[in-house]
Amino acid sequence: MSLTATQPKRVLLTGATGFVGRHIHRALIEDGHQVRVLIRPGSADRLAAAADILETADLFAETFPHLVAACEGVDTLVHAAWFVEPGRYLEAEENLACLSGSLALARAAVEAGVAQVIGIGTCFEYQLPSDRLTVDSPLRPETLYAATKVALFTALERYFAGKPVRFSWARLFYLHGEGEHPNRLVPYVRACLAEKKTAKLSAGTQLRDFLDVAEAGRMIASIVSREQAGAINICSGRAITLRAFVEEIAEETGQRDLLEFGSAPLRPGDPAAVVGVSNLAPLVPERAIHDESRDQAAHQSRGPDPSRDGHST
After folding, report:
1. Which residue from 8, 12, 249, 285 lies 20 to 30 Å from 93 (Cα-Cα)?
2. What does the pLDDT look like over 26-74, one tens digit per residue?
3. For the chain, how many structural domains are there in total?
4. Environment class of residue 179 by beta-carbon count within 10 Å: exposed (0-12), middle (13-18) or buried (19+)?
5. From CA 144, how far away is CA 127, in angstroms rounded?
6. pLDDT in tens, 139-161
7. Torsion angle of C-alpha atoms 71, 73, 78, 81, degrees rounded to 10
8. C-alpha to C-alpha distance for 92 and 236, rounded to whole angstroms
9. Quick check: helix, strand or coil at residue 236?
10. Closest by CA position to 278, among listed 224, 225, 241, 223
11. Which of 78, 103, 75 is nearest to 25 (CA)?
């Protein structure tokens, strides 16, 4: 299935100063969309691109009228905000506030006449481990973070079913790249290599689906134009062991000798395999559709070509 690109839209983006949100914002601007962001006071310097700025002290505790006002005049809501403090977010009670606040934002979007809503989910919604996760794979969250994401997806899918709203849910896999927290795997390994220190790692047998966050941002932003509804895996579709992935990084500078596998324990509950199957529909420019239709019409007006049906001599 392929989808036709649409005209530029007016987009409200939450979470625009975050790890993923910054890249969504940049990609939206590159795609020609007009972007409005809803951010905390004093955080505008962390934006990745120009935007119409609205401020809120706490998005998830914001009043309903304020949320409606923020949504007014936009075509699409991309909701990338969530509580993601490293070391805390998986079981933090803040996830419950994010859930309730996100439901209020969805209601506000409907009230304001927003036609398209794109939410951000996680691969940890799925039952794990699995080396072939499709959007039809069973859901079985094992953390409060994942459980609240599943709850939001399920509720919004049902809520929007009776509304004139196209709903998409982008499930993120293992992202890395610009803006990543320094304690995460890739920044840790790169820091060790830069300082000529040994990187202490687990055995690295886990299968993962890694994707550069910039590419993830482009994929999510493209949903605005694709208008593809339903759950969408934001993944590479490439299965690679953690060890092989880290070795690729070290090979860039010829420093594989600084990788020490097996010297760090596996994290409790770390799944053996998390690999996605991409279902992002190919995007066909609207002009290409018109050109193809015109060519087909011209061909039909000429009548059949005998050299193409096996009857030529």
Report:
1. 12
2. 999 999 999 999 999 999 999 999 999 999 999 999 999 999 999 999 9
3. 1
4. middle
5. 14
6. 999 999 999 999 999 999 999 99
7. -30
8. 29
9. coil
10. 223
11. 78
CA–CA separation, 313 and 310 (whole Å): 9
Domain of residue 93, CATH code:
3.40.50.720
User: Quick one: tokens of 20?
Assistant: 């993923």
Q: What is the DSSP string of 196-230?
A: T--EEE-----EE-EEEHHHHHHHHHHHHHH---E
Has residue 295 been placed in a domain? no
Examine residue 147 and state whether it is found in any structural domain, yes or no. Answer: yes
Distance CA 292, CA 88 (A): 52
Q: What is the mean pLDDT of the chain?
A: 92
Q: How many CB atoms lie within 10 A of CB 67?
A: 23
Q: How far apart are CA 30 and CA 134, in angstroms?
A: 29
- The per-residue pLDDT for range 265-294, each reduced to its tens digit, is 998 889 999 999 999 998 765 544 444 445
* Angstrom distance (rounded) from CA 67 to CA 305: 60
Cβ 56 vs Cβ 38: under 8 Å: yes
* Tokens representing residue 107 in the block: 């209601």
The reply to whether 195 falls in a domain is no
- Residue 119, in any domain of the structure: yes
For residue 227, the enclosing domain spans 3-180+210-235+278-285
Question: pTM score, two decimals?
Answer: 0.89
Q: What is the largest CA-CA distance in the chain?
A: 78
The yes-or-no verdict on residue 300 having pLDDT over 70 is: no
306 preceded by cis ω (within 30°)? no
